## 1
Amino acid sequence: MSNGDDTPPDADANDEAAPAADDTGDDTGAELATTESLRDRLDAAGEALEAAETEADLDDVEALLDAVEADLAEADFADGAGDEDGDEDDPNSREALEADLSDLREALAEARGPYGEDVVSAIETAKTTITAGDWTEQGEGEVVDAVLAFAETMGDIEADALDVPAVDVDRVNDTKSALDALAAAVSAAGFDADADAETLAALIEATDGLESDLEAAQEWEDLTVRETLQAAGYYDVLGHTKDYPPEWAALKEHEQRGNTEMVLLALDSLGSAFMEEHCLESLSRMGPVAATDEAIEEMLARAKKRKRLPIEILGKMGATEAVEQLVAFVDADKDPVLQKVTFRALGEIGDERAVQPLADKLLMDNDTVRPHAARALGLIGDTRAIKPLADTLKADENENVRAQAAWALRQIGTKRALEAVVDHGSDGTFIVQTEIDKARTALDAGIQPA
């Protein structure tokens, strides 16, 4: 039976089935063809990268890699594709292809340039290095020399577009403006990565030399402790001395000369407990002479940890900056030794902010600490302490507390303060009676504070 055309029915069926058989053929074979194709394209991109001579050639390679990456992201990899045993080291696996693609992109990035902006970036990095460096005096000179050498090298590079300015650098502070001018000259040249490849390579080499010279310049952290002290002139004060170690001998001389900076340098540099103690004792003996901003800051940091000697030093310095921190220790009733040192320091500083906190401690239970509170109030000399001190003199059962209260009132020295002592009458304790007698003598003589 005819179906209305010349084609046999069986032939139509065969023609329609053939394409379907191709599309639904063995899945593994199709995957193998896909992975092998990606591998071939990556290999071709690698060969193109090796042959590339211009930025345009590298752009073409990048386009190839972009295309492979896009197809790789869409590929459907079957387990073990490309390897019957499912070996993880299959060169056509997704992981292997992605790794090789990444390697080629890195190689492409390395092959590009250099560009003018790479030179400018290297100069900016040098500026940051100089700014962040803690240079010794020798190191500062080496930094200046490095910048001058870099400018000279740039000037020797033959390039019509590069107009290297003359730079005048005598100190480290001058290097920033000099490097800014050199970077601006590179930017203004408008170099082309292909046409000016040799010039750019020479400039990159010059910046590498600048970086190396800066790395070699001497910083304080590069020195040993003794070299650091030597470079800072710490030992310059030594004459013919037999004291040992020389660091201690120099410390004593710096103390005599009031060289707080050198004492702090030794404190910071020398790691021994022996020298730390002697440095702190020197600062304590120097008193107000040692009260530089740096010394006060250092002692505050140490006092914050409730270190007693730094607290004592702050008192000797008369450091009003320490009052708030020291007042916080006034109520440390569980550490009476800390309280005694703190009271004394606050008294020596003499700031009125400590009057009320100290007056409150006249009522504390510890009768070995109360006398120190009274004495500190006398050292401050504020008249607001007269009443609490007079009450203490009148009512405290401890003779040492009464004696210190009477002494403190005499130190305040106003007529009202002296009368508060005399009005106590007599005291069976010799030290208290002595203070009363001295107050009466001062009152009779009309002695008043200036």
## 2
Amino acid sequence: MKFGTHISIAGGIEKAPERAHEIGCECFQMFSKSPHGGKSIEITKDITTNFKKEVKKYNLKNYYIHTPYYINLASANGRIYHGSISAIREELEKADLLGAKAVVTHLGSAKDLGEKEAKKKLIQGLKKIFLLNKTEKEFEAKLLLEITAGAGDIMGDSFEEIAYFIKKAENDIKKNKLGVCFDTAHAFASGYDLRNKKAVKKTFDDFDKIIGIERLKLVHCNDSMVDLASHIDRHDNIGNGKIGLEGFEAILSEPRLKDLDFILETPGGKAEEDLKILRRLRK
């Protein structure tokens, strides 16, 4: 079990490993470009060499890329839909160049098409990420579907829905290309209780039964400002929110999570403090 946080790439992606090391990260997550869109950053041979030198220097073996915020694999707008497919494919290519373990993505919203049609389009989008000109693209990095809080028409807020997307997409692509990122704040807001040991066990029993624990590849470790099943995405610092320290102690004690990486996305520039809390709970 390793702990880290989301790290800025300001000034160059190769600066992220040192920043991660400075605040005590054992793993980290980053964007490969502005999360709001704009021009992509070319990963040159020099950038790749320098980045890999830095992660080796600081012994950061596991790191992840998060896709931009605009991703919507269920959009009725062709530019957004095809742009989302291309953007995710590009992030997987960058992940392979940099040696990242996985790419984490949100899925999008059903507001344009309605739930039934949105699900069909999303599944086709997942397939198209891996199928280019009828040839299946091989990536070393996995694509992780992130559990969402389910605000509005946002998709991917239940274990059943995530399992459905994976099963349907993998009918036409090779198995095990897709995994899951479990966000504690999102899951809690979606109705999965994490406040004590009994609740944590039940939540991951359900996850294992519905999705399969082998699909769980990463945890976004965030407390929640909002109540259970509120369906609002509001992260809080560890121990300050509705999950609380007892909940995080239970999460870190859950044996099925013992080999996973935990990435903080907590507010207020308090990542270093939150990392210390997690390390204390891990002990």
## 3
Amino acid sequence: MRHVIAILAVVVLLPVLADAQTPGRTAWGDPDLQGVWTNRTTTPLERPSEFEGRTELSAEERADLDAQAEANRDRPPPPGRTGAYNSFWLDRGLRTNQTSLIVDPPDGRYPTRTERVRESDAAFAASRDGTEFDTYEDLNLYDRCITRGMPGSMIPGFYNHNYQILQTPGYVVILVEMIHDARIIPLDGRPHLPVQIGQWMGDSRARWEGDTLVVETTNLTPKGDERVRNLVRAGSERAHVVERFTRVDADRIDYSFTVTDPATYARPWTAEIPMVPLGGEIFEYACHEGNYGLENILAGARAAEE
């Protein structure tokens, strides 16, 4: 009798277990992407030279790289530098099995940049010694906590790699914790805005291709055409970004984006970044409270000049 009860319990629970493992659908039938997700990882955007020609790491290599990252936490800053946040504030995550987030070009690195961009990136690098900040406009949009633009807002960096996805029958909303960008994306097939109207996060339109949400973004403002620290160059006004979100199981969204920007890169490039449940909530992002950071950066530059 005891065995019969156990078998019946398994039979009854099978549909429940299947539902727990299978991505669900919304009340109106779309694949359900909703929840609070994170894409934190220490996998670099570009493939390191030591993994040239390889797309994946072994389990042993991943464990070793995670151990190295842990051992290098909270190292003191170089002499003469103040340093930045300690590890308490950082949320870098672990390595994936990818050797780089960029999967195309096949070498896992950015395509060749145009001459225009190479010159401006060199100027950006030269300015990072902190002595060439004449006005607040000499700091980029990320330093000024305005936006990371696209695709920068969807790329993990140091912390706050968290995203809340909300769906309605006509829209998908992606709330980005970092710099609290909220992307409200229509699904009704409307055309993009006129080309002369640029926006910080661009103009996004979404559609479903099977179980994959495809989001196309255009109309990035030329004000965002700049190097965003060492993470990624924000797209020029000619950039076209195509994202794909696929809920592969209850605990994973396969996310990728492709950037086509002939003003910046010689060819399109694609990155793949898995998203997993955060297990928590989105918190308020408060950057440069009182704007003391910006004030002190400029004051430090004036002191260095003297």
